[in-house]
# Entry
Amino acid sequence: MLARRALLLGLMAPSAVMAQEGPAAPIAAFNAALQRGMKAGQATSFAARAAMLRPAVERAFDLPGILAASVGPRFAGFAEAAKAELQEAFTVFTVVTWVANFDADAGERFELGAETRALGQDQVVTSRIVPTSGDTTRLDFVMRQGPGGWKAVDILLNGTISRVAVQRSDFRALVAGGDPAPLLASLRSRAASLAAGAKS
# Structure
């Protein structure tokens, strides 16, 4: 799935190629990008590693859809400028969360399950992070097909704990008064903390 036919790549735009790939392909590409950043390690600046990873995050995840689902109905009523600011802050926060938590290569392997499973209209791609010692971490990516191909709309830690559900509780509390500013400030602050060395 990671192998691309050279002729096809020569004839098709990247978005068209992604649209024809299966649901596991974006996660395989994301895992590969994550490992490249880990191998670069702290000899490469945090900002540089974040810049390396961001395109893979944006290809693998439906960030606008995840943000809207996390914020809930109030999101539709925000001004377009506020939506754009929130989207950029959420994208940065998502990228730096991955970079901060996968900041060095300790020999971990990323493994994808051989098959996907249906979850309503979506497909679930199983991924495991296998360390050189200790417990394996399971991450299930809930994939949804759209015009740009398959993208993740949620992550299930150990197959059950929904990342979006956790965010939903947090984000909706911050916009309960109808003002997007507290959420925007929180996303920016948390991203800055992660870039400075925190983990989440």
Observations:
- Residues 41 and 104 are 5 Å apart (CA to CA).
- The chain has one domain: 10-187.
- The chain has nine helices and six strands.
